[in-house]
Amino acid sequence: MIYLTGFHAIEERIKSGSPCGPLLVAKAGPRAKEITTLAVNNKIRLERTGVFELDRIAPDNRGIALAVSDRSAEQDNKADVSLESFIDGLGEKKNALVIILDEITDPHNYGAILRCCDQFGADLVVSRNRRNAKHAAIISQTSAGAVSWVPQAETPNLVRAMEDLKEAGFWIYGADMEGDPVYKKDLSGRTAIILGGEGSGISRLIYEKCDGFVGIPSCGRIDSLNVSVAAGVLLYEIQRQRAK
What we know:
Blueprint: E1 2-4, H1 7-16, E2 23-25, H2 30-41, E3 46-48, H3 51-57, E4 64-68, H4 70-74, H5 83-88, E5 96-102, H6 107-119, E6 124-127, H7 136-142, E7 152-154, H8 158-167, E8 171-181, E9 190-196, H9 204-208, E10 212-215, H10 227-242
Parallel strand pairs: 2-3, 5-6, 5-9, 6-7, 8-9, 8-10
Antiparallel strand pairs: 1-4, 2-4
């Protein structure tokens, strides 16, 4: 059993309809009371508990914590899809955006990327390895609950996933410091962006399969942006182009 403690994470988990509960309540300020009401309306069981007990099992709590089983944390039936079903469901849709994560290992980065994907309308996030259940609380809190909404697909082979997306009409671009300035690249239509792992970047086989590369021009003294910050910049630019 794990416990979600962020207000947004708890709220979005309840709204998603995914299995959860009970909601542990030790003290309830105005925000916690709103979530408690939401839980009652969604038939989530409440349990009153002491402050010290809640601090023991969920140290980062703000008076409430939502229990989520390890299995449901790892397999969110509202957000998880297969790549095949995603492609089949596209139909005649011309604009679609997929984010491919190549070994993003930090759960804080994973969660922050999901939050960006939710805010800027990514249609799917593809990764090789399923997120670890022990990191589910971090991911949910960092994503502000977006983990319950952003469609995610797991695949054992990212290269094969890229080939499947290309067959479905996607152009695939790797995020790279040396890539073409993102604002000069036409990113309309069916597009996939690959984000490489922290420190290691995009792996060789995946790099070789990219149709091109996009970068974020900068003038700082540090080598590059954090991957989740880069995701936000790239996703914003794609949304800006498509809003024209």
